[in-house]
Amino acid sequence: MQEPNQERRNLLKGAVATSLASLAGSLSLGEAADAKADPDLIKRENQKEGSSDWQLTRIQLDKRDGFRSPKIEGYCSRQSVAAGEPIDIMVSTRPAQEFKIEIFRTGYYDGRGARLMKTLGPFQGKPQPVPQPGQKNLHECHWDAAVTLTIPDDWPSGVYLGRLSTLKDKTGYGYWQSYVVFIVKDDRPADILFQCSDNTWQAYNKWPSNYSVYTHPKGTQGPWADVSFDRPYAKYAQIYENPQSVGSGEWLCFEFPFAYWLEKHGYDVTYCSNSDMLTPEHGLKCKSFLSVGHDEYWDIRHYESVVKMRDAGVNLLFFSGNSVCWVTPMTASSDGRPNRIMFRGGPYGGKYKYAEARERDNGPFPHRGPDEGYLMGSRNVDPVNGGGDWVCELPEHWIFENTGMKKGDAIPGLIGWEYHGDPPADIPGLEVVAKGTALQGGVNPQQWTATIYPGPKNNFVFNASTIFWCQDLSSPPGHMLPWSHWSRPHGPDERVQQITHNIMRRATS
Hints:
The protein has about 500 residues and is α/β, with parallel strands linked by helices. The chain is built from ten helices and 23 strands. A seven-stranded mixed β-sheet has the order 11-9-12-14-23-22-21, with helices on both faces. The protein is globular, with a radius of gyration of 22 Å.
């Protein structure tokens, strides 16, 4: 294992040569902005009429475990799909009954939050089997598809929700609902590449009852459990109760407020899944890369892609917490579809003390990743969770322009429920722009740091150091404010909005 200084040199210097060599014969970052660029696409999309009825209204959870919705539930055959490509939607109803699927694109849409793109059905539903636990407690469904949807050419990139609704229940008066979720991707040059943290959604998904990477009998932090994307998303299982999360992963909880805010202000944004970042090609066409919310699980290829993007001049913006924590190898499903199974392969962190502790306490692991601090500017620490205020440390920095903030001014509750700290002292030009103390469980103090450092091509890397950042950007329909460790964010805050504008405008100029 490399020493920290050598690792820094590899990441901040040697990776430049590696990434440039890999780009030989291809388009440069600037040259990639070809005829496919369409900077007004999102503005035009959000001028279309949104839907006033896209949320889940009636959800019935399993009475025993309280996570899945057996009346109607489903999943998609792919995490992301491009226009012109097919995606299968698998649905189970219990008992057998008719249902329909409404496909919505989430966005701003004059404050409504989503637009109805297509209604499918009615279909005759049937109960589909819950798989028996496989090797490493894997639950991989092999359900029949209700429909194969080919994505129309005019559907823009975004996060799409399919609302599944039974047409009636046995009373004749009721109906039951849940979501499926998928990302429509593209390869166009854009100002912003918004990466959804869907590996982390799946890592914590307990469907059908108690089967996540955290629930193996051998322990909660080891490499023992595999999880599959071929299963429904159960209700979000961590820090708070959010009924809109049934089938939608963590999108509406910890990421949608950021997308809603970006689209409200007409930013040129395109979307992708974690698995789309296993290669850097699309990211190299974009000016900035966003990690949003809870972005804990990264395949090592994903990490290498983002290093190449930084070294080619892409701005990296970590509006997230507990990010790049676990090496997450992705493998094919049993029928060969790529990147459908994942597990906790080992810690990032190189020889950093907390990575060593994770190995000591929960290993042995088959993988070890580099020190994520040399990518993000700040690291995963222990404890990594808690709650606190986001406190200005460097008010003269350009990120605070027009906020009126002074040193020591605090944004209440913005730190949580996980964060970053202990920035590497030897990153050239790194600045700590905000710092403070979070309390784990309201008792144990831990220090967090928000940082920024210059990249090699007049770009920069920003780390907000909190999962909760998007909570203070907007409060769209379908979203609920979280709280954890006896602390909560307050919702939209003009200072957070202005800081984010400052960063996004610099990153996309």
